[in-house]
UniProtKB/TrEMBL annotation:
Native organism taxonomy: Bacteria, Bacillati, Bacillota, Bacilli, Bacillales
Protein family per UniProt: Belongs to the peptidase S1C family.
Name of the protein described by the UniProt record: HtrA-like peptidase
Chain residue ranges for the region called Disordered: 25-62, 93-127
Pfam families: PDZ_2, Trypsin_2
Length: 453
């Protein structure tokens, strides 16, 4: 059945199903597909408002039924703990001040060494000033040769002339005299002796005693002229590397009281010495080595430690173009023993054998066994290198290449021990028994110092 839109009028019957309008004919049959009706403004507005509610993006998710209930209680608790920690850090000022405090403490710690250095420097300066008061200039005065007849008229007035200037150290004072130790070569050949003390005043000095082998001499001056004396340190306690300070009059009185500083470079050095200026060494001095400057005029002066105590008497130096800083001083312990005898006797009474020697430990192993033919277990002793004619050693039959191992049954392991025993322990008037090796055989011989009397 067809309908002509111009001939028949279709009576619409409105039906509502799920918000859609349906159309029927007069027989109530559905005609065509339903057309959407125009939405009223109200409906459009309503739909616009309700549409966002249907979007999944804004829907709240439902709790997961599988999560334990205690976890929901733990989360708020953690939040409370975090808030509490934040409030505590804001209210506690010590945490923010900790770093500056540490920095202040570190700054204080680094300042302490500088104070110690200043204090040490002040102490050293005070020690030097105090010791300098006990150091004097020693003036060796000789008279000019006298002239006679017509020569006397034309010659200038015969006045004493200064033969040399050295140094000395005031080490002792009693009721009448102050005692000064110096080197023997400073006062050798003097007609008159004078000393200039630290305040510049000059006093006449008297020679009390001297010893050629140790190169030491003792002078005395009026005790009233002296206020202080120097203290001696035990030189056996000195270590290499300690501070050593030389005080004296280098190059004469113009530089009196000059101070040079260095260290103790070596101990128990053995240095050959020509005591009689004949061009050959006839003595071996036991000295300590220092790089503190010792120049002509320093001889007889003080070598002190940083506390101002005397550790040696400046005595000699090695003067060579290619050598620097090799200076030597007589150790204070030896000085003490020598001056005591010089004060009492004016000289040293000692056992003198008349040998030059060296440490056996310095000899190569091949020489010990092949040349000297010594036993394998013998490594310490005193090797005789030279025997002086008409000496006690020569009369006893000792020869070069003999190895001395004992004196009066006392083992001798080094030259230093050998000399100390002869000079300070052996009685120069008593017999001395010497144990020695020659060509690998052990021998003994007795020296009688009274034979040449």
């Amino acid at each position: 059945m067809k309908f002509d839109k111009t001939e028949k009028i279709i009576i619409p019957r409105e039906g509502y199903k799920r918000n859609k309008r349906l159309f029927y004919d007069e027989n109530e049959q559905l005609i065509g597909k339903p057309r959407p009706t125009e939405k009223q403004p109200e409906e459009q507005e309503k739909q616009t408002v309700e549409k966002p509610q249907k979007q999944p993006s804004v829907k709240k998710s439902k709790p997961n039924k599988n999560v334990p209930k205690w976890l929901y209680l733990l989360i708020p608790l953690l939040g409370l703990l975090l808030i509490g920690a934040l409030l505590w850090s804001l209210s506690n000022p010590t945490s923010t001040d900790e770093q500056p405090k540490e920095q202040t403490e570190k700054t204080t710690t680094t300042e302490e060494p500088s104070n110690n250095v200043k204090q040490s420097s002040d102490d050293l300066e005070e020690a030097i000033q105090h010791a300098s008061k006990s150091v004097v200039s020693v003036i060796n005065v000789e008279k000019q040769q006298e002239t006679f007849g017509d020569e006397a008229k034309s010659a200038p007035q015969a006045n004493p002339e200064k033969a040399g200037v050295g140094s000395g150290v005031i080490y002792k004072k009693d009721e009448h005299h102050a005692f000064i130790v110096t080197n023997r070569h400073v006062i050798q050949g003097a007609e008159n002796l004078e000393v200039t003390i630290s305040n510049g005043k000059r006093h006449k000095a008297t020679l009390k005693g001297q010893d050629e082998w140790t190169d030491l001499a003792v002078l005395t001056i009026d005790a009233n002229a002296i206020d202080s004396t120097i203290k001696m340190r035990n030189s056996d306690e000195i270590n290499v590397g300690e501070t050593a300070i030389a005080i004296g009059s280098p190059l004469g009185q113009a530089f009196q009281g000059s101070v040079s500083r260095g260290i103790v470079s070596g101990l128990n050095r053995t240095v050959p010495v020509d005591t009689n200026n004949d061009g050959s060494d006839d003595w071996e001095a036991n000295v300590l080595q220092t790089d503190a400057a010792i120049n002509p005029g320093n001889s007889g002066g003080a070598l002190i430690d940083e506390s101002g105590k005397l550790i040696g008497i400046s005595s000699m130096k090695i003067s060579m173009d290619n050598v620097e800083g090799m200076n030597f001083a007589i150790p204070s312990n030896e000085v003490q023993k020598v001056v005591e005898q010089l004060e009492e006797n004016g000289k040293l009474e000692r056992m003198y054998l008349g040998v030059m020697s060296s440490d056996l430990s310095h000899i190569p192993e091949g020489t010990l066994r092949e040349v000297l033919k010594l036993p394998e277990d013998l490594r310490e002793g005193v090797l005789v290198s030279y025997v002086e004619e008409s000496s006690h050693a020569s009369r006893a039959g000792l020869k070069a290449k003999d190895v001395i191992t004992a004196l009066n049954d006392e083992p001798m392991k080094s030259v230093l021990q050998f000399k100390k025993y002869l000079y300070y322990e052996a009685n120069p008037k008593d017999k001395l028994t010497i144990t020695y090796y020659r060509d690998g055989k052990k021998n003994t011989v007795t020296v009688d110092p009274t034979e040449d009397e």
